[in-house]
Structure formats: C-alpha cells, structure tokens
Amino acid sequence: MAKNLTLLALAVFALICALAAARSALGLRRTAWGILAFGLAAWAVADVIRIGQVRLSEPERFPRPVDYLYLAFSASTVLAMALFPAKRTGQRRLRFALDATTTVLCLSLLLWVTALHRVYDSFVGLNTAVVVTMLFQIGDLVALTIALLALVRADVRDRRVLWLLVAALGLLTVTHNAYALHVAEAGYQIGSMADIGFAAALIAFAGAAILSRRPAPPPRPAAALPLDSSLWLPYVPLLLAGTVGPALIMSGLERVLVPLVVVAVCLRQVLTARENRRLLAAAAEQALRDPLTGLANRTLFFDRLAHAMMLDRHDDRSVTVVSLDLDDFKLVNDSLGHPTADTVLVLVGKRISACVRTGDTVARLGGDEFILLLEGPADHAHMVAERIVAAFAEPFVIDGESMLMRPSVGMAVASSAEPELAPETLVNRADIAMYAAKRSRLTGLHTFSSEMTLLEPDVAYQVDSADRQLSDGVAQVRLLGELRRAVDERGLDVVYQPKLELSTNRIVGLEALLRWPHPQLGELRPDSFMALVRQHGLMRPVTELVLERVFDDAARWASSGLHPRVAVNLFAPLLRDERLPDALRDALDEHGLAPEMLTLEVTEDLALDEVSRVTAVLHRLRRHGIRVAIDDFGSGYSALSYLRDLPIDEVKLDRHFIKSVTRDARAAAVVRAVIDLARDLDISVVAEGVEGAETAVWLREHGCDIGQGYYFGRPAAASEIPQLIGR
Known about the structure:
Alpha-Beta Plaits; 25 helices; Bifunctional diguanylate cyclase/phosphodiesterase; TIM Barrel; 16 strands; transmembrane; about 725 residues; eight-stranded mixed barrel; alpha/beta
C-alpha cells in the first residue's frame, strides 16, 4: 500500500509541475505541456482507483478499466512529444516523420523478436489483453523515438528539458516491457518491483516541467547545426533490427546476407548524411562570417555578445566592446580603387586578429568598421585595445608601396551596476567613444564615459582646386598617414614672420606659420598639406599644436623681457565652440602670458555661416583681452558687414590686392577705401605680401598701419626672434 500511495503522490506532484509549465509557456509548448498534464491527471486518477481496488481486494485480472486510463497517459505522451520542439516545417517535418516511422518499426521488430513474442505466446490467441499490452509498448516506443529525434535536432535552449523527457520515456519503455513479461510469466500482481521504474519516470517528468520554467540560454545563431548524433541515431534501430533479428529467426545463408545488406545500407546512408552535414557546416560558416576578411559578421558577433552578457550577469565577469574605424579609408577607396581597398581591409583584419587573445571575437560590421568582443577583466581588455592601436604604427605594404593607416578606437565596458544593459546599448557606447577618438586625434583610444555625447565631427573644408590635390593616389594616402603621425608625435614646427609698424619701422608683432619638416621631402609649407588637414578633420589637433608651441615660445621670450604680439590662424568652424575663450584664457594664465599678446586670425570667407554664434564667441574673446583679426580680407566672399557687425581689432588685406597697388589704379582705390573705412571704425590695417620698397612706401603714405612680407623679413625660428627684434 505504501508504494501505491508514493506513486500517487509523485503523479500528483508531476501533474502540478506540468500545469505550472503549461501556464508559463507560450504557443505550441503550452499546448504540449497541457496535453502532458492531461495524461498525468489520467495517471493520478488511475492510481486512486487502483488503491481503492487494493483496499476492496478485487480479483486480479488484466486488463481492467483502470488500465485504459494508463493507456490514455501513453497516448498523451505521444501527442505531447510531437510538439517538442515546435519549429518543424515543410521537408523538415516530412523527414522527421519518416525517421520516426523507421525507428519505431525497427525497434518494434527488435522488441518482438527479443521479448514481445513471449508475451503474445502466453495468451490464447489475439484478445483484448494482447492488444492493450501491444498498445502500451508501441505508445512508449513512439513517444521515446519522437523525443530522441527532437533532442538531436533541438536548439540548445530546449535540450535540457528534452533530456529529462527522454529519460522519463526511456524508463517507461523499459518498465512497461518488464511489466508485460512479468504479467505473462507470473500473472498480474499489484505493487510489483516495476513500480520503481514508474516512480523514477514521474520524477523525471516533474523535473522537466520545473526546468522548462527557468530562463533559457540565449538562442544560437540561425545557421547553427543540430547535434552530430542526428546523423546516425535514426539508423541504429535499423542496424540492430537487421542484425539481431535475422540471427534469431532466420537460418542458413540468409541469416548472414541480410545483416550484411542492412549494415551496408546503414553505412551508405550515414556517409551521405555526413557529406550533407559538411555542406551544411560550410554554408553555416559562410552565413556567420564576413566573406572578405573571414572574420565574424554582425549576426555572429551580436549572438556571442548576448551570450557573454548573460554569463556576465550570473558570473560577475566583465564584457568589453571595442569599436574600430579606419581614418581616411574613403580616400583609399576613391584614390586607389576597390580592389586595393579590399586588400587593405583583409590586412587590417589580420593585424587586429594577431593582437587579440584566444576566445576574443573580432568582427567586421561593414566597410571599414570593425568591432571586438573582449571577455575578462576590464584592464586586460584595455591592454588588448592599446596593443591594437600600437599595431597600426607599422605601415601596410600594398603592391610594394607602404601606407600608414590610423584607426580611431572606442571602448565600452558592461558594468555590473547596470544588469539590464542591452547588447545594442553597449555597442552604441563603444561607437560614441570611437567618434570621440576620431574627433580628438590626440590618442587612438577612448573609453566611454557618461559625459560623452555623440556629436557631429567638425565640418571639413572642401577644396576643389586641382592644384591643391595630389595626383598620385598612393602618395596622397601615404602622405596623409605620415601627417597623422607627425601630428600625434608633435612633429610639426612653427616659424614666425615679423609684422612692422610702417610709421616707425619697428617690429610690433609676429605671425605664427606652420612648417612640416618631412624626413624625405624636406620642409613643407602649409600649401603642400593644408588641404589634407582640412579635408580629414585635423584642423583642431593642428591648431592646438600650434597654440601650444606659440605659448611655450612666448613664455621663453617673456622671460628675456620681450613681449611681442603673436598672431595665430584659427580655423573658423572652431569659433562655434563656446568653450574656446575660457580654454585660451586658462592656457595663457598657465604660461604666465598677458591675453593681449595673442591675436586670432580668422579667414573671412569661412565665417559667413552661424554669424550670431561666432559673434558671441568673438565678444567673449575680446572681453578676455584676446585680439581678433580678419585674415585675407578681400580674397573670398568679402562683406563690408563684417567690419560693421563683427567685434574685430584688425583687418589683414590679401596679398593679391597689395602686390598691384602701385600699378593698378582699381586695386589702389579699393585698398585706400578699406584703409579709410577701417580708420573710421578704429580697426588696424595690416598689409600682407609686401615684397618691395615701392609698395611699402605707398602703404605708408596712404595710412596703412602694419606691413608684413619678405621685404620686412622672412619667417624665422623661435630661437632667432630675440635677435631679430633687437636688430
């Protein structure tokens, strides 16, 4: 009686678990658990009836009405297993049905020749007891076969539950066979040892239901393949039936030939399945790999990232995403063509892969965008990212030509304080940090912080004139890479050209001019490389470099008692930065310099847009004591409204007007008008490009304040300025 009550308790417990699993599931899985719960309810009711029969001491016979309730449970397991898993459509459903049919028939044959024929022989003819017994065996075999075939084809999320269901159905199959033999040979006895198998099966059903309610691992990529066992498992029953069966029931030559034929057919089918799997594996690999570089693609990367972040939440591990974008890759594409650009991408992928650790994921999202998944401590990931940046210091060799490609790299770390952080958000943060690195140009690597915002890069100045473009695409790419290195390593120089007060011939100021001492090409003037600086977003770091050099030189001159004003060219879009005035004031204070020593020269044809915002910045600069000048006045889209609206201290007349004032009456008239207008507005006038005494005399006679040009002095190094001013 105790064993019967235990079985009843286990059946009720399994029923409750199945109902809970059905309630939490969705779609066909809910239906499957509902059907299984119905079968377990039939089992529990049958157990209650059987306990009552024991207490009433009813005569033992088989089958009885209660056995049909157990038979209902067997039927429910078949139907429920057919819905695990639910993703079977078209040819896959047909193949699954054929495999199940073959397996059931072969197992039934094997079961018949080994045991069931003894059960059949124990009864007299074909009667109800034989039919019920056979239905039990066939139901168990069908349900077990479907569960096994579903297991080897299932996604990783379903396998834990299916393993327990297979174990439960396997226990039922063995127990029912042993129970049938026991009934056939010893007669029907309530509470036999077979009940241990039934109890274990109920525990396995309950465990599967409980496990199905727990969070599952993230789904595998769409191209993932089923288990290797799916290749050979459907042929195992055929192989057993074709080898064991003939040996038991055949005689003569056929008991040898039939097994050999079955073995040969099974081997041939397995080999065919292996070949098909190899093709599927190749297709799956291609679906998850970038076809150009062989790196992971977007699908595989995000799948691994989701899995890593899920493990991070459970194991307190760090997950880091590194976003990498090649600077100026469009120039490579446009100048050298797509084949060369593809070669560069392949080499970049190899170089990045050589820097990462085993287990790290390197992916190409498209174009020149690469992304990395680094698991482990954040400081280790930072070391990997720095190693990648350092690897790009070595030029790439394409068709015998060396090209220096520089990356902008952003890094974002998943924090344990943000357990709900989505993979897409982490990637977006890495992109934001990458764009910050691209804007700064001070270092190749930036780590995301909450203060960062995704801003537009500075608008590049477009240069269309053919004489300012390099004709050789390889040379242009190479020069740009060398220029970036020169900016990063502070390899640019600053020289100073004197500005003379025409009424006294006294040096009253200097203009800082940029020079690039190229190791092969010699000293390059701005005309040789400024187009690249403007086109590729280098104006900000170059301007910062020049200001840094000017402040250092001015501080040294001041320590010697010299305080010349120094003019620095400023890229006009930088005037949109409202932080500029305070940043310049702080830098001047740090070097111990008076604000009036600095004059910012802005090219007037670049200051046409956003005049109101620029004007506000200029007012703040002048309130700090920093002078403002309009450079190259008259060279572009000149507007007299500048002289009226902009808060400026100085106007620099373009050299193209100045060089012809002594021989071109129209040019002379324009220059005289500007000088007179500026005097009325209390604005100083500087004449650029003075190259002869006649021009200098004309400017002095017509009231020009300051002259600058080769006639007064050529650009000189900072160390020569004290002597130049003294002379």
